[in-house]
């Protein structure tokens, strides 16, 4: 009887044992691919779905700064806890990797900034991403704000795409090899991609909106094509083309209760990035830039600020670009400069330019201190901002792919 019981137990247990031994451990915490200029703040680990080690990798980010601003409208000092982010990531099965970022900005109630599942079970090198996530546009818009080289995103990105650009949608990715050069393209469809605008206190700010339900040709779309190649033994060079298209949206003003619809606009970008790492891995240099064109219905304004009767829409083309260079002479210290220029969407005949100079000190691998100066001048006014930024990464820090 005992022998029969043992034999029966083994018969049921053996398939699970064989499956467990035959399934390789899969990467749970990292994103698995890096490109020049990408963030270095992530941790990798191993797990598999048949053990109690499946727990997703969890991390917290705290980002704060102190600054002094001197511009035409105001000046003074400020202290701000900009964000607290809770993120988690892990393989939910061998064919799907998921990640989440829950963010509280300036002490407000937390909001889901990203939550997406990447399905990798297709034949070949295809991936399908579903959920809420930042769009695949250039290299800077994919990053969360704490990952940037500077305190804010470059001027043309903020002006044309918003402070952040994400939405609920689906995205298909595929990469292939052209000789020794990896090439990747993506296509995405979203319910809305109007971006987050910076509100001006006391001003009548237009509120963009898309339809709650849309035909398929009224969805917002994105596309990106990028490739990279080695330059010598220690360098990499990357080129990319990106686009974002919003085919149908409206502008409204509160409390004027005026609205105009049937609007559309597109943003196109061309980016180039070079990265170099020395023999020891301690010295590094990166440089690059991006040119953007914003075309279509760019902005809106009331015909009369006091007694408005209609909305005037700006249907023009605005251009902008930014260039940067960043040099790290060891693991602790790096410095950089960034120049940006953009036409103003409210009046493309006017423009603004911005210069960022910064020094970054990595106190530890996951704790960073940055000193910077941002100088802006142009038709929208002049300003100088001096800041000290502190960022602390606790545990894991993983978002979507960035290349």
Provide a quick synopsis of the model:
By secondary structure, the chain is mainly β.
Q: How would you characterize this protein structure?
A:
The termini are far apart. The strands form 2 sheets. A 16-stranded antiparallel barrel has the order 3-4-5-6-7-8-9-11-12-13-14-15-16-17-18-19. A two-stranded antiparallel sheet has the order 1-2. A hairpin with a 6-residue loop joins strand 13 and strand 14. It has a single domain, classed as Porin. The relative contact order is 0.16. It has 403 residues and is mainly β. The protein is built from 2 helices and 19 strands.
Write the layout of secondary structure elements.
Elements: H1 2-22, E1 26-27, E2 46-47, E3 57-71, E4 75-93, E5 96-105, E6 111-119, E7 126-134, H2 155-160, E8 166-178, E9 181-190, E10 207-209, E11 220-231, E12 235-253, E13 258-277, E14 284-302, E15 311-328, E16 333-344, E17 347-364, E18 367-378, E19 383-395
Antiparallel strand pairs: 1-2, 3-4, 3-19, 4-5, 5-6, 6-7, 7-8, 8-9, 9-11, 10-12, 11-12, 12-13, 13-14, 14-15, 15-16, 16-17, 17-18, 18-19
Low-pLDDT sequence parts: 1-29, 42-50, 198-205
Q: Structural class of the secondary structure composition?
A: mainly beta
What would you give as the CATH superfamily? Porin
CATH architecture assignment name? Beta Barrel
- Beta strand count: 19
| N-end to C-end Cα span | 62 Å
CATH topology, what is it called?
Porin
Number of helices: 2
Main sheet, how many strands, which sense, barrel? 16 strands, antiparallel, barrel
Tags for this entry?
16-stranded antiparallel β-barrel, globular, 403 residues, mainly beta, disordered N terminus, 19 strands, Porin, two-stranded antiparallel sheet
């Amino acid at each position: 009887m005992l022998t029969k019981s043992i034999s029966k137990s083994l018969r049921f247990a053996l398939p699970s044992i064989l499956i467990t031994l035959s399934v390789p451990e899969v990467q749970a915490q990292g994103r698995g691919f890096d490109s020049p200029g990408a963030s270095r703040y992530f941790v990798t680990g191993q797990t598999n779905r048949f053990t109690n080690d499946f727990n997703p990798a969890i991390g917290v980010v705290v980002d704060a700064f102190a600054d002094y601003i001197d511009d035409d409208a105001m000046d003074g000092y400020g202290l701000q806890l900009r964000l607290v982010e809770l993120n988690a990531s892990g393989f939910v099965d061998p064919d799907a990797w998921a990640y989440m970022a829950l963010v509280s900005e300036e002490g407000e109630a937390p909001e889901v900034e990203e939550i997406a599942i990447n399905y990798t079970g297709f034949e070949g090198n295809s991936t399908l991403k579903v959920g809420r996530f930042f769009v695949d546009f250039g290299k800077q818009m994919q990053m969360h704000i704490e990952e940037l080289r500077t305190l804010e995103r470059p001027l043309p990105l903020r002006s044309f795409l918003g402070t952040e650009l994400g939405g609920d949608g689906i995205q298909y990715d595929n990469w292939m090899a052209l000789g020794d050069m990896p090439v990747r393209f993506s296509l995405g469809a979203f319910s809305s991609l109007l971006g987050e605008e910076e509100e001006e206190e006391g001003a009548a700010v237009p509120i963009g909106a898309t339809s709650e339900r849309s035909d398929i040709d009224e969805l917002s779309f994105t596309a990106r094509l990028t490739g990279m190649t080695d330059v010598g033994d220690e360098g990499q060079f990357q080129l990319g083309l990106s686009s974002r298209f919003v085919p149908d949206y409206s502008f409204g003003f509160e409390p004027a209760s005026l609205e105009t619809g049937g609007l559309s606009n597109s943003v196109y970008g061309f980016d180039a990035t070079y990265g170099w790492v020395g023999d020891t891995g301690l010295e590094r240099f990166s440089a690059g830039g991006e040119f953007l064109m914003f075309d279509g219905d760019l902005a809106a304004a009331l015909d009369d600020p006091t007694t408005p009767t209609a909305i005037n829409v700006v249907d023009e083309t605005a251009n902008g670009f930014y260039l940067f260079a960043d040099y790290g002479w060891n693991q602790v210290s790096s410095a950089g400069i960034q120049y940006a220029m953009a036409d103003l969407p409210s009046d493309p005949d006017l423009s603004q330019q911005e210069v960022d100079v910064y020094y970054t000190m990595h106190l530890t691998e996951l704790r960073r201190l940055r000193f910077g100066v941002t100088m802006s001048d142009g038709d929208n006014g002049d300003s100088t901002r001096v800041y000290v930024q502190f960022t602390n990464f606790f545990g894991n820090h993983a978002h979507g792919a960035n290349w």
